[in-house]
Amino acid sequence: MSSRMNGIMVLFVIVIMGQFQVAEASLNPSKFRAWSQFSLETDPGTLEPMVDTIIHGTYSQKLNHFNPFDNRKFNERYWISNQYAVSSDSPVIFYICGEADCTDHDVTSMLPWAKTINASVVVIEHRFYGQSQPFSQLTTANLKYMTVNQALEDFAQVVRYMKHDLGMSGPWIVAGGSYSGMLSSSFRLKYPELVRGAWSSSGPLNIYADYQGYDQKMVEDMGPECAAQLRSVIQIAEKAVHDPATLAQLRHQFGADDLTDVDDFLFSITDVAAAAVQYRFTAMLCNNLKSSPDPVTAYTAFAKQAATDLGYLPSSYSFGAATDLDAHGPNANLRVFFYQQCTEIGLFQTAYKDPAVSVRSQRLDMNYMRRGCERLFGKGLSDSTAVFRQEFFEPTQHRESLSEVYYTNGSTDPFGLPGIAAEFGTWNNRGVYAQMIEGGAHCDDLSFRREPDDAHKQAHAQIRLLLKKWTRPY
In degrees, to the nearest 5, what angle opens at C-alpha 240 toward C-alphas 237 and 246? Predict the structure, then answer.
C-alpha cells in the first residue's frame, strides 16, 4: 500500500492448517513475499471440470490497444483453477492481483470465495508487472504504454478469450484490493457486458496527487502519545541532515546505508511505521516505542524486526531504489508504480500541513515528489488525477453509469479516504454497495479469518449474498 499507494501493492497469502488467509501488503514489491510456489504446468486446451490443479498460461496481448497500426505484442500471464467449478457455464471469479508478481497463491486466496458459488478462479497479471513485460528495459519511452486504460483493455481481451475460446461461459465477477480494487471498479464501469459484478476492497477512486490525509489518519490511529514518540524520531533525523556523521550513523542503525538522498531516507523511515499502522500492527509499533526511553533505539529495533519478520527493508522503498531499468530487476515493480503515480494516479503520501500533527518530515512535500519523478523519468509530475477522477470516479456516483459493485473499506486504514464510503461522502449511488468495516485494515476483508470479528462477518455475509445474486441465471 509500506507506502500504500506510494509504491507497489503486493498480495501476501499465508496457508495455515488448510485455512487460506490473505492480507494486502500494499505498495512495496519487496514486502511480505515469503512463500514457496507449487505448480503444475497444464495445457489450457485440456480444461476440464473439477481439475484440482492450477493451470498456467499466457495470452498474446497487444502493446497498444488504441493504435490499429501497431502490431507489437507481449505475453501476459494468467492462472486458472477449476477446483470448485462443476461445468463450463460455472461462474468465474476474475482476480486482478495488482502491482506485483502473481503466483499460484493469488489463485488459492480466492478459492474459499469460489467454493461458495461453485466457481472457477482466474487470476491475471498486470502489464509491466511480474513477468508480463513488454520490454526488457523500463525506460520512460517504453513505460508510456503503462496506463490504466491499456491495462483494462488487456483484461477485457483475456475475458473474451476465455469465454469464447476456453468455453468459460458462466457469469464473471471481477475482484481486487487496493490498486487492483480501483481496477475492478473501473473494469465493471467500462466493460459491464463482460462482468456482472465487482468487488473493490480498499480501492481508491477519488484520487488526487497530494495525499496529506494519509499522514493525518495515521496519527489518529496511533494516538497522541505514540505519534509524539515517532515525531521525536523524525525530528532527530531531520536535524541529522545537517550533520553528515550523525546522519551516517542513523542510516546505519536503520539498515539504510545505501539511501544517499536524505529525503529518501526521511521518507523510508516513516514508511516503516506507515506499514505497521495500515496493516494493524499499530499496537506492536507503539509498544516498541514505549519500551525504551530512547525513541530512536526503540524505533530502529522495530524497523529491524520488520525487516526480519516481514522482509521490509527501509532502503527498498524510495525513488533512489527505483533507478534500475531492468524489467526483471528486484525493484522493477516499484519503478513501474512510481511511473503510474507520476503520470496518472498520484496519491503521494506527503506530510500533513500542520507539523504539530504530522509524523512525516515537512521536507516530504509535493516538491520532493516532483523531484523524484524527474530523477526517475526525466520529467516532472504530470498531475492528471483530475482526468482520472472524471473518467473513473465521477461515474461511480450515478446509478445510470454504474451498478453492482461492492466497495469495502476498513475504518483503521489510512489509505481509505479516497475510497467509496458513506463516511467519506462518496457513496451517493444506491446502485452500488458500500460498507465501512469497523476496525478493518487495508484490504483485510479479502481474507478468511479463523475467528472473524462481527464487522468482518457482516462484510463476508454481504459478499456471499452478492456473489449469489450476481451469478444467478438471468
Answer: 110
